[in-house]
Specification:
mainly alpha
């Protein structure tokens, strides 16, 4: 029975984490592209993302309750808000900082702005985007524990039940799987980054040469 509850909780936790991450990607990357169009757009988009990030996680979760109530969906929205900044900011900064010489050369050979975005800007931005996604996913994994306080379920439920009853075993039942998930997230994103990002580009980002 306990094993069944734990497996259900792990499933709920993973859905919370990856659904919010998916929303951050499909909304955050277009926002980053929009922010490139003008300084005003950049100020609004990055300013909003920074503002949400500056609010403590517990406060973000609490603020969602009057707007959306409690449960699974409000929890996803709260996690999404907290994971938006790393996706938007890392993508925006790297897309904007591509060498102007590369952009001019791409235009010189007849590439359209869409093609430049796809083949030049995004190629340059991949390492930083992976770093932002990795951080966002680890952050989502953490906030998913916190959202159990508003009825999201998941591994956080075991943690809160354990804290309420001073039951160390229950706390560990929630905390240990969450730690394992965080480690697996880090490993999986490292593997994906090595697969899709050229070695020279990764090293350039690390040593600041790009």
């Amino acid at each position: 029975m306990v094993t069944d509850r734990l497996m259900v909780a792990v499933g709920e936790h993973l859905i919370l984490t990856y659904t919010s991450l998916f929303l951050s990607i499909i909304i955050g990357i277009p926002l980053a592209i929009l922010a490139m169009r003008s300084e005003r757009a950049a100020s609004l988009v990055i300013g909003f993302a920074n503002l949400v990030q500056a609010i403590p996680s517990f406060a973000v979760v609490a603020m969602v309750v009057p707007l959306l109530g409690i449960g699974f969906t409000p929890a996803i929205f709260a996690i999404f808000l907290r994971t938006l900044l790393p996706v938007v900011k890392n993508t925006y900064v790297e897309l904007s900082e591509v060498d102007r010489g590369l952009i001019d050369a791409a235009r010189g050979i007849g590439l359209t702005e869409v093609e430049i975005l796809r083949y030049v800007r995004f190629s340059h931005a991949l390492p930083a985007m992976f770093a932002g996604l990795k951080f966002a996913t680890i952050l989502a994994n953490l906030i998913a524990i916190l959202t159990a306080i508003i009825g999201s379920g998941g591994l956080g439920r075991f943690v809160y039940e354990g804290l309420a009853s001073f039951n160390t075993e229950k706390i560990l039942m929630g905390a240990v799987p969450a730690i394992i998930i965080a480690i697996l997230i880090d490993l999986s994103f490292t593997i994906l980054e090595r697969k899709f990002t050229p070695v020279a580009m990764r090293e350039g980002v690390l040593d600041g040469s790009l």
